[in-house]
Amino acid sequence: MSDAASSTAAAQTEQPPVDITQSRYDLKTYFGRLRHFTSVTSPLTLLASPSELAAAQKLLQDYQHGVGEGRAAWGHEEEAGIWKAKQLVDSSLHPDTGLPVPLPFRMSAFVPTNILIIGGMLMPNPSLKGVIFWQWANQSLNVCVNYSNANKSIHMSNSEIATAYAAATLASCSIAVGLSTLVPRLRSLTPASRALLSRFVPFVAVASAGCVNIGLMRWKEIRDGIAVYPPADSNGRYSKEVLGTSSIAGQYAIAQTAASRVLTNIPTLILPPLIITMLERRGAFKGPNGARWNTITNLGLIGSSLLIFLPPAIATFPQRGSIDPKKLEPKFKDLPYEKVEFNKGL
After folding, report:
1. How high is the pLDDT of residue 6?
2. Residue 71's closest CA among 61, 84, 62?
3. 199 Cβ contact list (under 8 Å, min separation 6)
4. According to the model, what pLDDT value does residue 51 have?
5. Per-residue confidence (pLDDT) for residue 153, from 0 to 100
6. Closest CA to 117 of 270, 322, 303, 344
7. Is the pLDDT of residue 7 over 50?
8. Of 147, 165, 217, 334, which has the fewest Cβ atoms less than 10 A away?
9. Mean model confidence pLDDT for the chain
10. 289, 297 contact by CB (below 8 A)
11. Phi/psi of residue 283, each to 5°?
12. Residue 10 has what pLDDT?
């Protein structure tokens, strides 16, 4: 073999110093997942253009293959922008398909897209039409986010999506309208207590309807099952070998996703109303510009709550879930693994 051929063969056997197919952080720990999701849900990634996303993908591919600018970045990952490129790719591409998630429905867009909707739902003394409109807007966004970030090993037809969307929207509007009309009839409560209680109606409606939304949008994961994989290797690399599909794993995936969404809603839909009510009682919004400052403060509190509490809520459960195969269907009970894995979705 010639020297040139030997050099080429040696280059092909070289491995990059960092496995960038894995997260920069330890996803087995809550703190590691928190740092990971703080990175990938950053709204700053939305500012990247499609060409910048394509360039980031190419840089990471070159890094893995040890060619061009990617090879030059070996050992200089931070300075060469490898981690910045990975943040952009992880926040923009679906882990199952490798294709870009539509920009408004990425988890990094969760804060800016939800500020306006939640602000509308938390407006004081809303009309019946207002309650219905904002619940419809919220569930429409939820359907798009749930579908775009769901486990893609299961396909849904347009008619199935439309049915799930209609049912979720009907459920959320029914709950919100029912509670909005019930609270004023609670004559045993003081006017101040009824006013405070009415501010929590959006949380109850959104939390309960959100669970319905996720269940309806992803019901086929329970009916048909989702892909189950062997556990990651000693280096943390995920396996792509599909051991089969499991309906029980689908149930776990949906339940964990719904729980993390409720955890996101708790501070966002409860803290701002409490703080606004406290400020109102202290006369913070009196004067000719009181209503304007009330709105500005409310939106600021909502945006801050979303930005601060979204990563901790999503980090509660790993995106790559694991489960004892003995808890799954009988066909998985004889597998030679203590744990198998599945993609939970976001």
Report:
1. 45
2. 62
3. 122, 124, 273, 274, 276, 277
4. 92
5. 64
6. 303
7. no
8. 334
9. 82
10. no
11. 75, 25
12. 46
Strands 226-228 and 340-343: unpaired
Q: How far apart are CA 303 and CA 207, in angstroms?
A: 18
Alpha helices in 26-127 (DSSP H): 30-40, 50-65, 68-72, 82-92, 110-121
pLDDT at 9: 47
pLDDT tens sequence across 73-92: 888 888 778 899 999 999 99
Q: Give me the residue label for tokens 């913070």.
A: 284
Q: What is the DSSP string of 295-346?
A: HHHHHHHHHHHHHHHHHHHHTTS-SEEEE-GGGS-GGGTT-S-S-EEEE---
Residue 194, SS3 per DSSP: helix
312-341 in b/e burial notation, b at 16+ Cβ within 10 A? bbbbebbbbbbbebeebeeebeebeeeebb
* Gap between the Cα atoms of 85 and 62, Å rounded: 12
**Phi and psi (nearest 5°) for 226?**
-120, 160
Tokens, residue 300: 């600021």
- pLDDT tens profile 281-319: 888 888 788 878 888 888 888 888 888 888 898 888 888
Q: What is the DSSP string of 20-44?
A: TTS-SS-TTSHHHHHHHHHHHT-GG
Burial of residue 281 (CB within 10 Å: 0-12, 13-18, 19+) is exposed
Q: Is the dihedral of CA 296, 297, 298, 299 positive or negative?
A: positive
Helix (H) or strand (E) holding 147: helix 128-149
Integer Cα distance of 179 and 197 in angstroms: 10
Residue 15 burial by Cβ neighbours in a 10 Å radius (0-12, 13-18, 19+)? exposed
Orientation angle between helical segments 247-281 and 191-199, nearest 10 degrees: 140
Q: Write down the pLDDT at residue 346.
A: 67
Q: Do the beta carbons of residue 302 and residue 272 sit within 8 Å? A: yes
**Which bin fits 53, alpha (ψ -120 to 50), beta or left (φ > 0)?**
alpha
Encoded amino acid at 139, one letter: Q
